[in-house]
Each structure stands twice: as structure tokens, then as C-alpha cells.
Amino acid sequence: MAVRVRLRVERGGMVREVVALVNSGYEADTPQLMIPAWLARELNLWPPPSDAREEIFDTAGGPVRVWIVGG
Predict the structure, then answer these.
(1) Is 39 helix (H, G, I), strand (E, B) or coil?
(2) Which domain range does residue 45 map to?
(3) In the chain, N or C terminus with fewer CB closer than 10 Å?
(4) How many other C-beta atoms can be found within 10 angstroms of the C-beta atom of residue 4?
(5) Total number of domains in the chain
């Protein structure tokens, strides 16, 4: 059964409320919030800011390119 929670995401004075899937089976060493492109645009995170770093994540569906901001 999927577990979803409502999150309040804040960046640069902008606030968006989103629903997040929290039991996807994905594990990480640090807290992570993966967001869709439409939300990244609304929060001025797309196109990626100059301090973002690009990485490739391996997923069940194949490799996925992600940009990491902060942390």
C-alpha cells in the first residue's frame, strides 16, 4: 500500500504544497526530495541553477539523469 504525505516546499519566498510518496523502497544516506519538472520550474530550479550538480541514478526502469541542488 502506498503511503503519501502532504509537504510544504519553500524556496526563495515561494511556497508550494505537494503530495509525496514516502514508502517507495528507495533508500538514501541523506534526506532527498525528488520533484517533477513542473514544480522545479515554479520554484526556479529549472533550468538547473549554476550550483546544481548532475548525476545519473540507476533505477528499475534504467538510468535517470538528475540535478542535485543544496546539500
Answers:
(1) helix
(2) 4-68
(3) N
(4) 11
(5) 1
